[in-house]
Amino acid sequence: MVLNINVYQSEIAKSVPRGVRIAALFDTSFGYGTPQLELLMSSLAHFYEASDCVMFEPDVKNKPKLRTPSIGMRIERLATRFPPHSEGFHVEYNLHLMERVAELKPRVIVVTSAAVMPALIKLPYKPDLVIYYMLESIDYQRKMGGQDFVNLLQICRSKIDLICVPEINRADFDLRYLGWTDMRVVEIFNVSLDKYMGGEKSSEPIIINAGSICESTQCDYFERDLPVNLRVDICGIPSSKRMVQMVNGFRSNASNIRYLGSLTMEDLDEIYNRYAYSICMWKPSDINQIHASPNKLFQSIAHGVPPIAAPHPQCLRVIRDYGCGILMGGWSFQDFYLALERAQKIYGTSMYHDMIDRCRFATENELNWSTQFNKLKPHLPTAV
């Protein structure tokens, strides 16, 4: 099969007119764990005084539209007849994207994965700025779309002006694999808040584990004996039959572990600061998970909830730099157990309260969206 591709060499514009239209091409629904994309679009819209800021998402049937976006932004849901992330879905969704982008002609475009690259390849014009927000690793994208997704990324190299990544070590591995060592890359942490949101704690120390409920996040550890009197709340969507059985067991049995169901980011923001600690760990089974950049690490710190984290490089760096959490010695259950014991022991002490103060300092000093977007500003074309 021969592709007829209009190839141009990426040469980032020196300036972008104020009042332009900007667009994001996304391959899953907003509000399900990726608040950074909406924050990026909001900041770009403000930076360029955009006349229109549209975010395209597929109309995934089991993921309804969660909320109205920020003022000055809008979400367009594009319906397909095929199941999400099937081959037919990707073809039909990209056809819809091509049609809408050709109609609107945004001057600034943000793409988030190989899944939407066909729409970028077939653009009939050259935008002033194309940003690839590389939220997922190459390994993850290959699992979703096979080698075709990797090939799509390589085809699009000349169309991308700037790459934003949440974790620079993982990105370095991926970009070397793609041969993109000469690309402009900016690391933007997966922060989701712009200010410290700490508040009153619950009368009893409870730990929260929010996010994916699967073996990859080592949630199977909750099936084992944990320290006496330890209370844990879990929320998220179980990803396997075993995990469904586990959370159903928490619901039906007298247990110190409570399952809260699936919560939105807004729901979590309302309850997060009442918790004593949060748990942050991924099984180190591949590059994507070793170099994790979890939303919940930054979300919990911003709420004054010290994370109990496995030694993923970014977690290790943040907690060591700021002293705002507890680092596990490794990824084993014994490492997890010992970290929980330490958390219990220091709760309510001056050491614990100092940790909370350090969460505030970390948020105000670096782990907020304004500071992260400021990293990107020097690399953006000037607004004129």
Architecture overview:
The chain has 384 residues and is an alpha/beta fold. The protein folds into two domains: 15-188, Glycogen Phosphorylase B (Rossmann fold); 207-365, 3-Layer(aba) Sandwich (Rossmann fold), CATH 3.40.50.2000. The chain is built from 13 helices and 15 strands. It has helices spanning 35-47, 87-104, 117-121, 138-155, 168-178, 241-252, 265-271, 287-290, 295-302, 313-322, 333-346, 350-365, 369-376; strands at 15-16, 21-25, 52-58, 74-78, 108-111, 129-133, 162-165, 185-187, 207-210, 232-235, 257-259, 277-280, 307-309, 326-327, 382-383. The strands form three sheets. A seven-stranded parallel sheet has the order 4-3-2-5-6-7-8, sandwiched between helices. Strand 10 (232-235), helix 6 and strand 11 (257-259) form a beta-alpha-beta unit. The radius of gyration is 21 Å and the shape is globular. The model is unreliable at 1-9 (pLDDT under 50).
Summarize the main sheet.
Answer: 7 strands, parallel
Q: Which sequence of SSEs, written as H and E, runs from N to C?
A: EEHEEHEHEHEHEEEHEHEHHEHEHHHE
Number of helices, where a helix is a run of at least 4 consecutive DSSP H or I residues? 13
The total count of strands amounts to 15
Low-confidence stretches: 1-9
The count of domains is 2
Strand content range: 5-15%
Instruction: Provide the structure class.
Output: alpha/beta
Question: CATH class of the largest domain, please?
Answer: Alpha Beta
**Biggest sheet: strand arrangement:** 4-3-2-5-6-7-8
Which CATH architecture of the largest domain?
3-Layer(aba) Sandwich
CATH superfamily of the largest domain: Glycogen Phosphorylase B
Cα(first) to Cα(last) distance is 43 Å
CATH topology grouping of the largest domain: Rossmann fold
**Which word captures the global form?**
globular
Return Rg in Å.
Answer: 21 Å
Mean pLDDT: 89
Helix content: 25-40%
